[in-house]
Amino acid sequence: MKFVHIADVHLDTPFKTISDRADLGVERRLEQRKALKKVVDYIKENNIEYLFISGDLYDEVYVRESSISFLNNLFKEIPNTKIYIAPGNHDPYIKNSFYATYPWNENVKIFTNDVEKVENEDANIYGFGFNNFEMNNNQIKDIVLDEPEKINILITHGDLGESRYNPMKLNEIKSKGFDYVALGHIHKRDDSTNVVYPGSLISLGFDELGEHGMIVGEINNKELKKEFIKIDEREFVEKELDVSDILSEEELIEKINSINEENKLFKIILVGYRNFPININIKLINKNVIKIKNNTKIKIKLKENNSTLKGIFIKKLNERKNNNLIDEQTYENILEIAEQALGKNKN
Q: Could you tell me if residue 188 is inside a domain?
């Protein structure tokens, strides 16, 4: 049997937090659709018999019916592929959800929160999902394989560890004897064993660095072969830029704009000692840089002095900081403004 395993698509998620650019959310949602089309095209081209979707296929809070129709039309393109979906904590099987109310294509099987076994000629597929946005009960412990000689697959969504999101134990899962366990929820890929997280289909932000895609597997005579195939054409990358030798805002913008690698989206982390206030307008930055974080420090010699305006100001400012009336970041911001305004005063 041949299968494709995906999870954590989060279709229609707004991507609000990943960028300072308003249009990137729309671009990434289009790329979600493109990624799903690539998965279906691969299935068609390679005669894949099964598609396992291990939860968080869409975001219940944001998903539109038009997007569900888009999904279902894709599933209609692969009528000979059996599609199994285990709802997750972001797309639970609840009363008015699209899982419960939409007329899905006949090749789509959606599990509920009760463990269910579907018998096929070549494999038994076990599955269960969320019926709420949290799920604490352990469903794994009660599963007993009644045909261990047959290929047995488990599909679900949850955590390997203590959690509010279907907590499971790896050793307990392995003891059940499944030939493949298709999990979702963790957005970082882990395919080191037959208990597999494929990771999110496309990266949802800078906490999901690296390549993203799907797992393709085949089981013959109880022997599992699997590989990761990259689907997301973009990759999120964090990159540090030391500003210590940069003397102007214009020079800094030029340095940032020189960072330009195809199909990579950058978060630039500014480090070192700054020589000027940094408050860059993102509109002046190339579109492949979508976030800038300022971790620089101020390059100012601090001297308290009762005989100069600057010295008196610094003394008073230090007193407020030492008495915990202002935090470190506020302290540095005030100090930098003061340096610009009072810099010509000698200490």
A: yes
Residue 217 within a domain = yes
Q: Please report which helix (H) or strand (E) contains residue 90, including its range.
A: none
How big is the CA angle at 229 (ends 286 and 123), to the nearest 5 degrees?
A: 145
Query: What pTM value is reported for the model?
Result: 0.84
Q: Are 51 and 313 in contact (CB under 8 A)?
A: no
Alpha-carbon separation of residue 59 from 11, 55, 87 (angstroms): 6, 10, 11
- For residues 246 and 322, membership in a common domain is answered with yes
Q: How far apart are CA 276 and CA 253, in angstroms?
A: 13
Whether 193 and 241 map to the same domain: the answer is: no
* Sign for the pseudo-dihedral over CA of 122, 3, 89, 185: positive
Say if CB 246 and CB 252 are below 8 A apart.
yes
Q: State the pLDDT confidence band at 20, using cuts at 50, 70 and 90.
A: low
More confidently predicted of 73 and 25? 73
Phi, psi of 313, deg, nearest 5: -60, -45
Q: Note down the domain range covering 203.
A: 2-230
**Three-state SS at 33:** helix
Is the domain of 222 the same as that of 134? yes
Residue type, 216: V
Asked if 86 and 190 sit in the same domain, the reply is yes
Q: Which two tokens stand for residue 111?
A: 């599990």
